Structure formats: structure tokens, C-alpha cells
Amino acid sequence: QEYTALKLKVVEWAPKAADALKGKIPEDASVYLCPATLRPETMYGQVCCFVGPSLSYGVFRASEKEYFVITERAARNMAYQGIFEKEGVPEKAAEVKGSDLIGTLVTAPLSFHPQVRVLPMDTVLATKGTGVVTSVPSDSPDDYAMVTELAKKADFYGIKKEWAELEIIPIIQTPTSDLLAPHLVKKLKINSPKDAKQLQEAKELAYKEGFYQGVMKVGDFKGEKVEVAKPKVREQLIKNGDAFAYSEPENKVVSRSG
Ligand code: ZZB
């Protein structure tokens, strides 16, 4: 699986994360949360960054001045992909629990919301991507269901309501909608992030319709088909130093070319 890993730079740590990192990272280094995505063309619509509250994250040294917050598993993969200065064995500078990252303020490259908060999502898998997920509720049904839930039950989740209420701006026009994920969530009567089966169906529909019939509504490739714009946005992000290629060894054996 070939992902685009984004670099969301930490602007302000949540207090518990600041404690966990104290004295472990050089003062002048930048630390990034690095969500892995298959939809770089949707980055204009980022509204928050999800971590699994019960997952454990490492802060890994990518170079003298750059550190990445990702799962140990992702770091081990990255160490063999020329992503870190040092090849082979990742260098872990600190460890932090997902729950302690909640509330951290990070940049969101390309987004209409230049800075977003780190928020909890229980369904983030430790076994996929980097364990960090950037949230695009306009085009991801899972993300729409989760931000809706977070805004509804902010106290329960220990967050500020306004962190989950950033405006959801249309990014991609498809034949049915320019806010495909909210449209599908309503249509399939999805009420919560726990409606796993319907969410899976909504995700598949959103991927298909977005990719084959979507047209960019915003950004440098406005008016172009998603299919065409996707690699261009990815290239732009990478060129600007806001992202890098990250690939994941397949879990299952999938043969497409025979
Ligand atoms: C931004 C984005 C915007 C995403 C969108 C999807 C969509 P997959 O494998 O088919 O589920 N993701 C990445 N890592 C994890 C994880 N560890 N746990 C849970 N979810 C994760 O697709 C991968 C997508 O799942 C990634 O792309 C990421 O969310 C999320 F508009 O990043 B995506 C219709 C989907 N739209």
C-alpha cells in the first residue's frame, strides 16, 4: 500500500504530552504528527488529526532537526525506506500515550484551516499506516461520523467543543454532492462511529464516487478530475516538504498482475 504521509507540525503541545517530552527533544527541533493517507487531494478539507487514545506512540528522530510522532511499527517500516537519516533501526527519543496528545495544536498543510487540534478516535488501528489519521469529514464518512460525535459529546471526550466544530468546506464535486461523506452518512442512516458495517459501505461508496466521478472544487487543480489531480497534489505536498511517500508491506497476498 503506497501512502502519502503528511507532516503536521506541532505548534503547541497538550500539557501531558509536553511533560512526556520534556528534555528529550532538542529545543530547536520540529516535531510532526505524520498521518498516512490515500487521499492527498482532500487535504484542503482537514479539520483535525485523530490518534487512538489507548495507543502508544513514539517520537522518532528523522534527522537532527525533525522528529516524527508515529507508532513503533510505522517507524520500523520507515527505517528501511530512506525516510530517516539513519537506516535500519529507528531512534526513539520519547514515548507518549495517544490520550496525552489530545488537544495538541498542529499545522495542516493545504487546509483551509491552517491549524487544527489532535482529537481521539477509538477506531484508529495500530496495525495500519502510522496510527495517526488526518480528518477530512467532507469526504470521509468515518471522519464525519466521528467529528459529529465529538462535537455532541465534547465533555465526555474531554475536549473543547469548538475543536470539533471547524467548518466543513466542500472540496470535491461528484454527481450526487459536493459534501459526499455527510450525504452518505445521512443516506445510510449512520448515527455514530460505532455503526461499523454501514460506515464500511459508505467508505467504499465514497472512494469509488470520489475517485471516478469527482472533480476538484478548490486548490491549484480546481476543475480537474480527482483521478488526474490526486498525483499532482501529492507531488506538490512532497516538493514543499509537507509530505513524504510511505509504503506498507501488504498483510495479505494480493496479486493483480498475475
Ligand atoms: C484522509 C482521508 C480523506 C482518508 C478521505 C480517507 C478519505 P483504508 O485502508 O481503505 O481504510 N487511515 C489511515 N490509517 C488509519 C488507521 N491506522 N486506522 C484507521 N484509519 C486509518 O484507507 C486508508 C484511509 O484510512 C486513510 O486515508 C485514512 O483516512 C484512514 F476523504 O486520510 B484517509 C472514503 C475515504 N475518504
TrEMBL record:
Keywords: Aminoacyl-tRNA synthetase, ATP-binding, Ligase, Nucleotide-binding, Protein biosynthesis
GO molecular function, one term: leucine-tRNA ligase activity
Oxidoreductase as UniProt keyword: no
GO terms classed as biological process: leucyl-tRNA aminoacylation
Family assignment from sequence similarity: Belongs to the class-I aminoacyl-tRNA synthetase family.
Protein name: leucine--tRNA ligase
Organism: Thermothelomyces thermophilus (strain ATCC 42464 / BCRC 31852 / DSM 1799)
Source organism phylogeny: Eukaryota, Fungi, Dikarya, Ascomycota, Pezizomycotina
